[in-house]
Amino acid sequence: MTTVLIADDQPLQRFGFRMLLESQDDMTVLGEAPGGSDAVRMTAELHPDVVLMDIRMPGLDGIEATRRIVAQGHRTRVLILTTFDLDEYAYAGLRAGASGFLVKDALPEELLSGIRSVASGDAVVAPGLTRRLLDAYVQLLPSETPHTSHTPPEPDPRLATLTDREREILTVIGQGWTNAEISARLHVAESTVKTHVTRILAKTGSRDRIQAVILAYDTKLVRPA
Amino acid sequence: MTTVLIADDQPLQRFGFRMLLESQDDMTVLGEAPGGSDAVRMTAELHPDVVLMDIRMPGLDGIEATRRIVAQGHRTRVLILTTFDLDEYAYAGLRAGASGFLVKDALPEELLSGIRSVASGDAVVAPGLTRRLLDAYVQLLPSETPHTSHTPPEPDPRLATLTDREREILTVIGQGWTNAEISARLHVAESTVKTHVTRILAKTGSRDRIQAVILAYDTKLVRPA
DNA sequence: GCCACCGTAGTACCGCGGTACTACACCCCT
DNA sequence: AGGGGTGTAGTACCGCGGTACTACGGTGGC
Asked: For chain A, how far is it from start to end, CA to CA, in angstroms?
C-alpha cells in the first residue's frame, strides 16, 4: 500500500488528485496540505511514502518545502508537479532532493505509475524534460575551467557595506576563530561578538558563519596557507 | 511514420524487435545491422529516425558506434539497449550522445513508447536508472572542481588518511553545505553524514567543520570562486 | 574462513552559534 | 539640538553541529 500526501493550494486540484488516487486499491491519501509549511508539518507527522508537491504555493513554496521534507531524513519521497515545464523549477526541485518531476498535463496513468516508481525508490522525470536533464548532465561531465585571471586586490562589492570593525571580525571568522576566542582576543564581550556576527551575516547574505568563511576566502580577505 | 534501424549481433533478438515494431502501424524497420560498423554505415545510407543499439557487439561496440552516428550530424537518434543495467555503460552511452537508455527486460510497451519519445526529440532513461542518473547529476552540480582532469590531485598529507567517501564529504563541507543538505543531496541519512563528519574531523585534527572548510581551501580541495 | 575496514544508520546528549529584542554611549552630520 | 550609524552589551530561546556509543552488511586481504 502506497501512502500519499497531496500538497496543493487549489482545492479543486486536490480533489481531482484524491479521486484519482483513491480509485486505485494500492494507494491511500493520508491527507491534503494547502501550503508548503502544512506539507512539511504533515509529512513529519504522517510519514507518507510520497508527497505530491505543487511548486507554486502561498507561503513556503514547493521547492523549499521539498528541501525541508527531504531534510527530515525519513523515507518520504517527493514528486514535484507543476503546470509548466520550466527548467529552473525542475532543476531547483531536483537539487532540493525531489525524487521526480512531472507536469500536470500528464496522463492519469503516467501520474499513477510515477507515484509507484517513486514509492519504490526509483525516480521519474517528465518525458519532455529528460532530454534537457541529460544535456545538462553531460555538459557537466567534461567541464574544464582554466580561469587564470589575476585580479588586483580591489574591494569586493559583497564587502562594501561592512564597517571596518565588521571587516576585521569577518577576517578572524575566516581564520576559524570561535565567538569565544574572538571575544577573548579582541577584549570584547561575547555578546558583542554575536551582534557583530549577526550583522555581518545579514549584510553579506550569508546564512551562517560557514558561508562567511567561504566568502572571506572568495573575496581574498583571507588566503589559503 | 517512425523509421528504425536495429543494431544487434543476435539474430533472434533482431527478429523479436522487428516483429514487435512491425506490429505497430506507425513504425517501419529500415534494416538490421549485425555489428557496430554495419550500424554506422547503414545509418549513413538510410537515415533512420531511431537506431536501436545494442552495446555488446563484435568489432565496433555500441558506444563507439553511437559516437560515430551522432557525429554524422543527421537527425538520427540512438536508443541504447542492454541486458544489464551497468552504470558505466549507461553513462558512457549517454556521453557518446545517445538519446536514451533502456534495459532489454523492459515491457514491449515501454520499448515502443521509448522509441516514439526518442523519435520526437525527447529522451528516455530506464526507470531503474533514472535515480542513479539524478544522483550523479545532483552530485555534480555543487562540485565545480573536476578532479577528473588530467592533473592527478596531489595528495596533501593532511588528507592522506581520508577515504574517497570522506574526501567527497569534505569537499561539500568546504562548499558550505549543512549536514541536512548533504544528507538530502547525497541521499544518505543525516546520522551517516554525522558519522562521516566526525571521522573527518578526527582524522584531520579539525575541531569543527569551520576548520574543515579552511582545510579544504588550504589543500585546494575546493577553490575560491 | 576470518578479520579489518568502510559505508551505512540509529540514539542520546550537550554546547556553540545564531536570532530577536532591547539598551546605551559615542561620533558625525545636518 | 536632533538623528542616524556604530560599537558595545545583555537576556532568552532554539536548532544545528559534534560526540559517544552501538550496530550491521559488504568487501577485500590474508
From this structure: 56
